[in-house]
């Protein structure tokens, strides 16, 4: 299968009071077209740092990140802006990811307007995206604080879909939601992945969620990938001690 994303030997060390802490320690993996890859592990294991490196929010010390075979780490200016259209993120707390002064509809339209689309065209496309994520069109005029977490997360997914990205990174995208809403968002992501051939990188600590949604899973511990495989195999027959502890804490 075609590799959408290739991460090669990434390493990132932070310093606090001159004491080094290696958050990401020489990891490599890929995401294939139409695949949902899960990256799981406890808080502080390096998952979010990995996502920040991929999306240019943090620079690595060493390593390589390729999108469709093209190195992305050194992109600047226009090419870097193009990268943001190809890779989108859905965050843990959707209300915080929207400008509170703007309606959800304007937030969804922003990237399209930045690409030069007319407001009329962007508005039409925005309504199509709301339909796609099964959110009533009336929510276009609502503000982030006026809607529930699940409704806001649907709007955030619509916003991520707007530039037609190659890859969507979901960083703990359901962990702030209650269980029923989590299930609804998971079902939505599964539906979108199947219908649109989306490539997803799902970053979370919930193995049950990974089992429901992902094609493959990587287990991360102390900055390293310690186990990988098909979710059912990793969960039912964990090889590493840390993975066994992670499984026992959920099932």
- Which structural class best describes the helix and strand composition? alpha/beta
The helix count comes to 10
Strand order of the largest sheet: 6-7-8-3-9-10
Order of helices and strands: EEEHEEHEHHHHEHEHEEHH
Question: End-to-end distance, in Å?
Answer: 32 Å
Structure report:
Helix 4 packs across helix 5 (119-132), helix 4 packs parallel to helix 6 (149-161) and helix 5 (119-132) packs across helix 6. Strand 1 and strand 2 (19-32) form a beta hairpin. The mean pLDDT is 90. The protein has helices spanning 47-54, 77-86, 94-97, 104-114, 119-132, 149-161, 179-196, 207-213, 231-236, 241-248; strands at 3-16, 19-32, 36-40, 62-67, 70-71, 87-90, 167-171, 200-204, 216-221, 224-229. Strands 6-7-8-3-9-10 form a six-stranded mixed sheet, sandwiched between helices. It has a four-stranded antiparallel sheet with strand order 2-1-4-5, with helices on one face. 39% of the residues lie in helices and 27% in strands. It contains ten helices and ten strands. It is α/β, with parallel strands linked by helices.
